[in-house]
Design a protein that fits this description.
229 residues, alpha+beta, 2 domains, 6-stranded antiparallel β-sheet, 5-stranded antiparallel β-sheet, 3 helices, 29% helix
């Protein structure tokens, strides 16, 4: 039979306080461990394989004489050959340019130069251009609209396209097409990676985690000991 007296309550409270401190120490370590698993340290000069943030990107005009050759519906999709890991790019070109001959030739990239630009020193021209025979042609008032699919294959392995971890947000891979005194571009940005939180922020996060656990557990201990009052 349990005898209720001040000495018993004091001993129980002392045991609970010891357990409470041990719990906080273990809890603090778990906060740090969990956070460390989600962080990745960036070292200067370290490179990683390029992975696009978005597979499909819209066309952009970088400048020139005829910026309206292609409609905004034109887009390119980044893909990798499952057979040999080479880079393939599938393009949908859409044009309703008033000069019908230019519009017709443009959606098959006739009279255009094509380059895959990794950086200022590294450019690749396609080794294969597959033009879809199916041309979609519609009449919009007095204007004819043309739409066609094209697939480009480049002589580079996807695993060979490396980008720097540091300054990753300033990196991109570009498909540049030049024709009719105008330059167009499709731009792929790399997928962001998790970065290490600066040490002062880590310390503050650890303090907050420790403080939250301490308050919550202390309330539970007090509520439990009050049952002996």
């Amino acid at each position: 039979m349990f005898v209720y007296n001040y000495k018993n309550v004091k001993n129980i409270y002392l045991v609970l306080e010891v357990l409470f401190i041990a719990y906080l120490i273990l809890g603090s370590n778990s906060c740090t461990t969990t956070k460390n698993k989600k962080e990745e340290k960036i070292r200067a000069g370290e490179y990683i394989q390029f992975v696009p943030e978005s597979q499909i990107v819209p066309i952009q005009c970088l400048g020139g004489r005829y910026p309206q050759i292609f409609n905004s519906e034109s887009q390119a999709e980044w893909s990798i050959s499952p057979i040999n890991d080479t880079v393939n790019i599938k393009i949908i070109l859409d044009s309703s340019f008033p000069d019908m001959s230019i519009a017709y030739d443009s959606v098959r990239l006739r009279n255009f130069e094509i380059q895959l630009v990794l950086n200022e020193q590294t450019q690749f021209q396609p080794v294969q251009i597959i033009v879809d025979k199916n041309l979609v042609e519609t009449q919009e008032g007095t204007i004819r609209r043309f739409k066609r699919n094209i697939e480009l294959s480049f002589p580079i392995l996807a695993s060979q396209i490396m980008v720097p971890k540091e300054g990753l947000q300033n990196t991109s891979v570009n498909l540049v097409i030049k024709g009719y005194d105008t330059v167009f571009c499709f731009t792929w940005k790399p997928k962001p990676i998790e970065v290490e939180v600066p040490l002062p922020m880590k310390i503050e996060a650890g303090k907050q985690c420790f403080s939250d656990k301490a308050k919550k557990t202390h309330r539970k201990v007090l509520n439990w000991t009050h049952t002996f009052d």
